[in-house]
């Protein structure tokens, strides 16, 4: 182990971490209110600890810290599994809200601070509802050409950038082939974008099926909260669904999105799981 990793391990070896999951997205969370872990160390920890099979495994790592404003109870730093820092994560937001409520740190409802802005959260047992930052940069009916094919797509930022493509049979969508081509497409440089494949299911009750290729994870994930919110919002703007819509994620769990058009707000609601609490062993970061 090099000196930097050894120094980092000494900082965290006696500090508990928490593992929570929401709709199949899982996260490693540290309480970092004393800011012992720096942002650069957060990036290293994310890359080391999020590795499947060799370490804890997760879609992202979150540091909870003191807020910079009195309007928020706390702030966070969110790191994708590749170590990149993201502005926002809907399912991660629901997990941290569940955690701080369960630990008795803050009482629901409350606001917390992200790079995307203030997030409102309500916790009712394992079910958590968050209000995302206002959607922006809506662009409908974009033609995107790739060396795979061309696509009619839609774009909105729900805290992080999202492209939405409607697909007739979502199970057949080649998410891992098309996702990277749009994620890195020149239209969305330099930030890139997440890519959602959506199927509208009509019957007694309309709902959406969704699969997401996530920026920063660089793969399809079992769910994406901001992606579900973006997909519901665009579907609503296209007149396909009502202001309240359920989305069936890859994990099989249901996310519910509420659109408050007058307030320009999106609310995301679903179940969470408090999986375990533990301490890091040195070999987890080797």
TrEMBL record:
GO terms for cellular component: cytosol. The keyword Isomerase applies. InterPro entries: DAP_epimerase_AS (IPR018510), DAP_epimerase_DapF (IPR001653). The keyword Cytoplasm applies. GO terms for molecular function: diaminopimelate epimerase activity. Its EC number is 5.1.1.7. It catalyses: (2S,6S)-2,6-diaminopimelate = meso-2,6-diaminopimelate. Homodimer. Belongs to the diaminopimelate epimerase family. This is Diaminopimelate epimerase. The lineage of its organism: Bacteria, Pseudomonadati, Thermodesulfobacteriota, Thermodesulfobacteria, Thermodesulfobacteriales.
């Amino acid at each position: 182990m090099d000196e930097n990793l050894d120094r980092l391990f000494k900082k965290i070896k006696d500090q508990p971490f928490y593992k929570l999951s929401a709709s199949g997205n899982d996260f490693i969370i540290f309480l970092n209110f004393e800011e012992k872990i720096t942002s650069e160390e957060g990036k290293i920890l994310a890359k080391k600890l999020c590795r499947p099979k060799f370490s804890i495994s997760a879609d992202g790592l979150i540091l909870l810290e003191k807020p910079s404003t009195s309007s928020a109870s706390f702030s966070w730093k969110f790191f994708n599994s590749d170590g990149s820092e993201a502005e926002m994560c809907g399912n991660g937001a629901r997990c941290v809200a569940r955690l701080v409520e369960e630990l008795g740190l803050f009482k629901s409802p409350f606001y917390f601070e992200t790079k995307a802005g203030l997030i409102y959260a309500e916790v009712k047992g394992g079910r958590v509802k968050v209000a995302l930052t206002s959607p922006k940069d809506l662009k409908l009916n974009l033609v995107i050409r790739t060396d795979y094919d061309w696509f009619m797509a839609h774009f909105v930022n729900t805290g992080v950038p999202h492209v939405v493509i409607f697909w007739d049979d979502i199970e057949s969508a080649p998410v891992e082939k098309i996702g990277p081509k749009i994620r890195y497409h020149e239209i969305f440089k330099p930030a890139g974008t997440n890519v959602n494949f959506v199927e509208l299911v009509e019957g007694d009750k309309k709902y959406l099926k969704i699969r997401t290729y996530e920026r920063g994870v660089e793969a399809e994930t079992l769910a994406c909260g901001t992606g579900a919110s973006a997909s519901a919002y665009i579907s609503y703007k296209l007149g396909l669904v009502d202001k309240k819509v359920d989305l069936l994620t890859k994990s099989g769990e249901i996310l519910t999105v509420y659109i408050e058009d007058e307030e320009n707000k999106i609310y995301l609601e679903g179940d969470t799981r408090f999986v375990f609490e533990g301490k890091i062993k040195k070999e987890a970061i080797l």
